[in-house]
Design a protein that fits this description.
The protein has 741 residues and is an alpha+beta fold. Helices cover 62% and strands 7% of the residues.
Amino acid sequence: MATFLYKLGRLAFRRRHFVALIWVALLTLAGVGAASAPAAGSSSFSIPGTEAQKAFDLLEQRFPGMSADGATARVVFKAPGGEKVTAKGNKAVVEKTVRELRDGSEVVSATDPFTAHAVSKDGTIAYAQVKYKVSGMELEDASKDALKEGAQHARDGGLTVEIGGDALSAVPETGATEVIGIAIAAVVLVITFGSLVAAGLPLLTALIGVGIGVSTITALASALDLGSTTSTLATMIGLAVGIDYALFIVSRYRGELAEGREREEAAGRAVGTAGSAVVFAGLTVVIALVGLAVVNIPMLTKMGVAAAGTVAIAVLIALTMIPALLGFAGRKVKPAGEKSRMLGGGRATARKSRPNMGTRWASFVVRRPVAVLLLGVIGLGAAAVPATKLELGLPDDGSQPTSTTQRRAYDLLSEGFGPGFNGPLMVVVDAKESDSPKAAVATVTDDIKDLKDVVTVTPATYNKAGDTAMITVIPGSKPSSATTEDLVHGIRDAGAGIKADTDAQVLVTGTTAMNIDVSQKLNDALIPYLALVVGLAFLLLIVVFRSILVPLKAALGFLLSVTAALGAVVAVFQWGWLSGLMGVEETGPVMSMMPIFMVGVVFGLAMDYEVFLVTRMREAYVHGENPGQAIVTGFRHGARVVTAAAIIMIAVFSGFIGSSESMIKMIGFGLAIAVFFDAFVVRMALVPAVLALLGRKAWWLPKWLGRILPNVDVEGEGLRSRQDGERRDPDADPDRELVRV
């Protein structure tokens, strides 16, 4: 592989005008496609195989025209202090508002609180439910404006009015922190390279790659039913890996220049060596993201595939456009150790012979591997402790900031009707096979009333055929509570007995039941997903490192870092530690998809640093150094760049903590802290400590396996042979001892 990439790098360097033209043309094509594509609506959320989804599909079939997937709005009215909403003047204001809400072209229905019995017992709070033909993201601005204006008219009439539901849902905003993250990345690149031109190349190529990826996602969003979160995730990961991959190749190019090679040759060798690591690091990220399809939640699968596509583009750009741009830059990109005149280049440097920080740190770890290993493991273990109290759930209006009208509507409904009113359960009775559908529905209603934590059971609503009924159940507890979850399971257990007696099938759906089913599905898929992704990547790393213990160590280190990161997420978003600093206004359960999502993404990113750092050690070992020397050599050449790459990735991910959507905020924080733990604790401390303890055993590979595995030559041994005219055997001197460093 190294030889092929070496030739590709030289070709891109020579034909730089052609390569640049291709990428600019692709960016233009994607941009035109995004601009001309129809606006994407809301991404449909389905969870195939779950009871909640089956009930939802049955409603679509048996109750045509009810717009089961349409947006809803709960307009909540509260009378002034000391008054009742049923008073003549207040009642007139409410009724007038409801009439105004019914006039919209997209409105299916708007219920009158006084005829629908939607008034609290004390008469102070009432609500009108508005149903729309389309989803919240597809609602026209005119419909949203009409909803807001109707609420304002009621406020002008002296009432307190808030709007809940998904009718006012909007595309999440990331805020200025995303730009700050990119700015921090730029500063780190300038410090790392000592050159504005060299620093600008990774940023430019990363932005081009993300531009192509996100524009393509936007162009296909309507056709493939992609939501706004998909492009946000692709931007987040594409920026991070795009900058990192380009950073490693530019850094290796400068190192080759420092050894006296011509620029075209240096570009070829940089792509042949660092580019090989980029390919395999990218493959691990792609495997982890595409593997999300195992969960069988279409939204999660689309997010993973779209982000994986952006990563693949980042790899291709790093292998082709970076050497092309290096050709355009010419002498403006200095050899390693030199700075541009603008940044202080040309001055005499003191203590040139002093080892760099990476060398000094690696030497310390090789001398004290046990102490470093214990300290790192204990530290990560302490950070992981909160993960033992992990509570999973999906966000609802109760997790919104108190400044939003959705949250205030949620609180008003809880005040007037009880906490369970915000999470009603919809029970669907399919009595098509029953001899007496109405008797079966009556049995279901009576059995549900006898269950614990049931406050209200509404009369059944039948379809035209009279063989299917809907029953709304109001729990006594809030939607995200364990008591409500027990009630859902209790209704389903009771349904099993009813089916045996009446041949009627009982299904529970609604937002609360859907959230419970999603959480269960994600929990069930976590272990198979972990086994698949880690297993495939383990096999890939065996090929890369030609070792058994190095990939095993990499996987175990990942488990430490991802568990510690989950602990940090629990501490901030569930317990509220540093919540003010992170902009978390409301604490609550961690999103159900967070563990499986972090496993996938963090594993891929963790293997990036493993591949970049350890391939340099492997390269030194293959070319004759003993294990201890190889560790120090790997850190001398790679520690500065890996550190810069980690800081950049942390900065990019942290930029999304400013998002207005809790899901994006949590993902940004979780990935940032996971990269911190993995890069600076696992890869920088635990990896050299373990390799120092293992010695030559770290690179052991059974001979029979060595004969089977393809030799992909990630470390560039073939390129060294081109220069030296011979291939050096790392085991040629078995008596070579570990030097003390």
